[in-house]
Design brief:
Bound molecules: pyridoxal-5'-phosphate
Largest sheet: 7 strands, mixed
Mean pLDDT: 96
Radius of gyration: 22 Å
Number of strands: 11
Strand content: 15-25%
Structural class: alpha/beta
Low-confidence stretches: none
Distance between the termini: 64 Å
Shape: globular
Helix content: 25-40%
Order of helices and strands: HHHHEHEHEHEHEEEHHHEEHEEH
Strand order of the largest sheet: 1-7-6-5-4-2-3
Length: 350
């Protein structure tokens, strides 16, 4: 068990949140003169639901998680930042994270002036729970894990993840942004067992909705209540809420698109494998491949000149000469492969 009051910043625990007009009145009325809105139907004259109850209900049905265990943010970036603001005292507390992983955990630590401790994954990008736990001390409030991980693409060993959750008495965050592409199921069915677990998912990847900025955090109702208390009152705008309801309704489209990307991931891997400058393709449970090449900087530059942008990860820990290729449409992947093949022919003649 965790003592939430003990790990929450005292000012946040005591905080009395801003109470907006739409918080004080629940239900439906025929005349709204409570929020100083314009009465003219533009049709965006009314404030959106600050608690996004309809969207949460739809997510609850798709994910099998109770509404009071769902927090919605302006992308996953918002709950990432709010977790620091809720639990980490600047210049005093610290967090521990796997390395390499998603860059926002570190950036938000720096913004909030919180020490960011890293524990390197092994050469197969696997995690040791013991190493992660031994990097913690009495000031460690959060542990960051990401599975499938970015930029490596692999799923972390589930037993190691569970060992961290069970043996840490602060908050453990598991970022599952790529879970829809994974052969490993999400951890949400076990959420009620773990009062210290926060699971992040997003509409930005498999749901094909990066532009609307909608991220989900799943956690105990107590943790969700703390995040809700400190968020901006109207953090999810009405256009985003409507879009979310519409994509959640067309759930089958998601399955179709994911199946196509998984098929393309296999084909892309097979074609890249044959290129002479490709040294290793790491196993992926996500919608991208991490590929070790002989000269990442040169290939990156060559692709840019051909109008193809990929991610050069060569300066990232354990990723020397690695590039990250997002799996695109069949046509996009074809173009990438043809361009790389032409480059291989060219360097053969050097
Ligand atoms: C892409 C990505 C996200 C999504 O962030 P949003 O702010 O929801 O767009 C979250 N975590 C990881 C690891 C990612 O790669």
């Amino acid at each position: 068990m965790i003592d939430l009051q003990k790990i929450t910043r005292p000012n946040i625990w005591r905080l009395k949140p801003y109470s907006c007009a739409r918080n004080e009145f629940h239900g439906t009325a025929s005349v709204y003169l409570d929020a100083n809105e314009s009465p003219y139907d533009t049709p965006y004259n009314r404030y959106p639901d600050p608690l996004q109850l309809r969207v949460k209900k739809a997510i609850s049905e798709v994910k099998g998680v109770a509404c009071d265990s769902i927090f919605l943010g302006n992308g996953s970036d918002e709950p990432i930042d709010l977790l620091y603001r809720a639990f980490c005292e600047p210049q005093k507390d610290n967090v521990v994270a796997i390395e390499p992983t998603y860059g926002m955990y570190h950036v938000c630590a720096d913004i909030n002036d919180v020490e960011y401790r890293t524990v390197n994954l092994d050469e197969n990008f696997q995690m040791s729970a013991d190493k992660l736990l031994s990097a913690c001390d009495e000031h460690t409030k959060l542990i960051w894990m990401c599975s499938p991980n970015n930029p490596s693409g692999n799923s972390l060993n589930r037993n190691e993840i569970l060992k961290v959750i069970k043996n840490f008495d602060g908050i453990v965050v598991l970022d599952e942004a790529y879970i829809d592409f994974s052969s490993v199921p999400d951890i949400l069915p076990q959420l009620p067992e773990f009062p210290n677990l926060v699971v992040l998912q997003t509409f930005s990847k498999a749901w094909a909705s990066a532009a609307v900025r909608l991220g989900m955090a799943f956690a105990s109702p107590e943790i969700v209540a703390i995040l809700t208390k400190i968020k901006y009152p109207y953090n999810i705008n009405v256009l985003t809420q409507r879009h979310a309801l519409s994509v959640l309704e067309n759930n089958n489209q998601l399955q179709q698109r994911v199946a196509e990307i998984l098929e393309q991931r296999v084909l892309l891997g097979q074609r890249l494998q044959k290129l002479p400058f490709v040294e290793k393709i790491y196993p992926s449970d996500a919608n991208f491949l991490l590929v070790k090449v002989t000269d990442a900087n040169e290939i990156y530059q060559m692709l840019i000149e051909k109008g193809i942008v990929v991610r050069n990860r060569t300066t990232v820990t354990l990723c020397a000469n690695c590039m990250r290729f997002t799996v695109g449409t069949r046509e996009e992947n074809d173009l990438l492969c043809q361009t790389l093949l032409a480059y291989a022919e060219k360097i053969k003649k050097r």
